[in-house]
Design goal:
- This protein has one domain.
- The protein is built from three helices and two strands.
- It has a two-stranded antiparallel sheet with strand order 1-2.
- Helix 1 packs across helix 2 and helix 2 packs across helix 3.
- It starts with 6 loop residues before the first helix and ends with a helix.
Length: about 110
């Protein structure tokens, strides 16, 4: 008989599974849009009108992962009426990441 996981360990695994699922969805969406070998390229070149963007594939996936994970976790927290610690902790972490990203973007714009 295999030992069972504690309740807190099970909740952590569930949150990690949801985040991994969000990452997989982001990767599959970008793979479908940009070709299935985009993740193995050293850089991703995107030309839009007269602007040329160069991204690392991991960064590009992370830029799509953040909004997807925030929406998925926010919906899960709303469904649970914010009673469960797991979705609340992940949502708080994602909010901190969004806040730091916004702060860095504003600082970069102000001090250019």
């Amino acid at each position: 008989m295999a030992p069972s996981l504690s309740n807190s360990a099970r909740r952590i695994l569930v949150e990690l599974a949801w985040l991994l699922g969000s990452w997989a969805f982001s990767w599959l969406l970008l793979s479908k849009l940009l070709g299935y070998d985009y993740f193995w390229k050293p850089e991703l070149d995107i030309q839009m009108h007269n602007t040329y963007f160069v991204f690392q594939p991991l960064l590009f996936t992370a830029l799509l992962f953040l909004p997807i994970a925030t929406v998925v976790t926010g919906v899960r927290a709303l469904i649970g009426a914010f009673r469960h610690f797991g979705p609340n902790a992940v949502l708080t972490s994602l909010t901190v990441i969004w806040s730091l990203t916004l702060l860095l973007a504003v600082a970069g714009w102000l001090f250019r």
